Amino acid sequence: MINNGQDWVAMILAGGKGSRLNELTSETAKPAVLFGGKYRIIDFTLSNCRNSGVNTVGVLIQYKPFELNTHIGEGRSWDLHGTWSGVYILPPYTEKNGVCWYKGTADSVYQNLEFLSTYNPKYVLILSGDHIYKMDYQKMLQFHIASQASVTISVMEVPYSEAHRFGIMNTDNKGKIFEFEEKPQQPKNNLASMGIYIFNYDKLKEYLEKDSQNPTSTRDFGKDIIPQMLANEERLCSYIYQGYWRDVGTVKSFYDANMDLLSSKPFLKLDCQEWPILSRSSSYPPQYISETAKVRNSIISEGCHLEGTVENSVLSPGVTIKKNAVVENSVLLENTIVEQNATIKHAITCQNCHIKSFASINQENHQEPVLVPQNTTITQETKLEEVLT
Question: Is 239 labelled a binding residue?
Fold first, then answer.
């Protein structure tokens, strides 16, 4: 097993703003958004690295980095600290005329070639920090080596009706990629790119340096690097992933992924000891569930104080549900308070929301969950449409 931190290095792209998540990312980077109660979205990628034996990880940050930086720290929560391992926060470089922001996914790695050269790895694993999934990168690496590829791209089958939303890899019967189509209107197959790549380091460096000299490039892996490698007839192979995977890039997909955790047969098990999802420890006290509380099919995090009814919901740390309050089919983020006789159904509340007595948030008859911005107070007299505009 490759596990000394020198043969492969992971680079996690974690600088995205996540604008389609609206208020969820107004004050924090998308990878740092709370998910599944106690976790942050990036915990899944970091845990996959740890569980796969990837011990050297660079995290490329940009948008509102403080909370993400604080959460990751030195990587101790994921056992990614020590003589032959480490997590390194890699912001954009600062130039004399100001900050040189990452111009795209490929540029973010290009700006950190000096970091990679420190380890001079054989292989570089490019990952996204904002996907929910469990994956053994070791198996993908073994496939990459056996295929003698310059780059291997993880793909998964999606419904043909949704294939136009993805980058589609057209392959031969042995998995060799011969064409890449970015969000085609009439896709030729349904193998969608997951944005997970394993590059031979020498090839990655070569193409990033060439791309940096191209004035017309958008500095993106999918739009620029991969097409250029195909044009040069490099060997690109597809690795088919068949597990659970979600890009929580919209409010609805974020909500749906949380609800997936509550399924009678969950697509993604958080209590799997063989492949644990790890996170930074909370300083909250234990949860308290009073004799008046009624809790059914829900995730209740530490620091929660429950006196009311909670059903089919996910509660982050520090949530308070007072007596006779009702929370159903909802995701409540950190330190939300729901007062007596208040009702929340089919909603997401951001951090530090306060739902006053007899107030009601009820989106049961709507396809999209309602999203309440952080630090919002909802009273019985509040016109919800005014708060959400």
Answer: no
What is residue 311's predicted lDDT score, i.e. its pLDDT?
98
Q: Note the pLDDT tens digit of each residue in 60-78.
A: 988 888 888 899 988 889 9
Q: How far apart are CA 155 and CA 192, in angstroms?
A: 5
- Could you write out the DSSP letters of every residue in 363-388? -TT-SSPEEEPTT-EE-TT--HHHHT
Residue 320 belongs to domain spanning: 288-386
Q: Within 10 A of 20 (CB to CB), how many other CB atoms are there?
A: 15
The pLDDT value given to residue 99: 53
**Residue 382 located in a structural domain:** yes
Residue 193 annotated as part of some ligand binding site: yes
Q: Mean pLDDT, to the nearest integer, of 45-74?
A: 91
Q: 207 and 228 in contact (C-beta within 8 Å)? A: yes
- Ranges of H-type helices in 21-152: 42-52, 66-72, 105-110, 113-119, 137-147
Q: What is the CATH number of the domain that holds 93?
A: 3.90.550.10
Residue 2 exposure: Cα atoms within 13 Å on the Cβ side:
22
Residue 40 has pLDDT above 80, yes or no: yes
Under DSSP, is residue 187 helix (H, G, I), strand (E, B) or coil?
Answer: coil
Contact in structure between 175 and 194 (CB atoms under 8 Å): no
Per-residue pLDDT tens for 173-191? 889 999 999 889 999 999 9
Q: Do residues 78 and 59 make contact, with C-beta atoms less than 8 angstroms apart?
A: no
Q: Is 167 known as a binding-site position?
A: yes
d(CA 155, CA 190): 9
pLDDT of residue 269: 87
Give the mean model confidence (pLDDT) for residues 275-293. Answer: 94
Say whether both 210 and 294 belong to one domain: no
Contact in structure between 300 and 310 (CB atoms under 8 Å): yes
Reference 115, options 151, 87, 150; nearest CA is 87
**What is residue 78's DSSP assignment?**
G
In sequence order, what DSSP letters do the residues of 249-277 get, joined into one string? -SHHHHHHHHHHTTSSS-SS-S--TTSPP
Give me the CATH number covering residue 360: 2.160.10.10
* DSSP-derived 3-state class of residue 27: coil
pLDDT value at 2 more than 50: no
Please classify residue 120 by burial: count the beta carbons closer than 10 Å to its beta carbon, then call 0-12 exposed, 13-18 middle and 19+ buried.
Answer: exposed
Let me know how long the chain is: 389
